[in-house]
Amino acid sequence: MSGFNSLTAALEGWFDKLLxxxxxxxxxxxxxxxxxxxxxxxxPAQRRSVxxxxxxxxxxxxxxxxxxWCDLFVRKDAIEKQIAEWxxxxxxxxxxxxxxxxxxxxxxx
Length: 109
What we know:
By secondary structure, the protein is an all-alpha fold. The protein has 5 helices and no strands. The chain is elongated.
């Protein structure tokens, strides 16, 4: 057992209730885990969405997935910067153009 306590599961049956109607321990958890989102200003669907997002970002079981997406966007950003650098390279002759074009084609793949 990872010790992970799903917020969505803890709130099942409560998404349509006002914060004042919750047991004190659950009120405190909502105030902590929803911060800065004000529970009473959200619709039940929005509350569920926030809870699901919190679960995804907090569950150790999704760490590998989160890391994959983080790494992907870091790599994408680095490639986009390289493409911008290649595009900025001066190409005074047609033969000089071949190298940047080959580099750009490789980066775009």
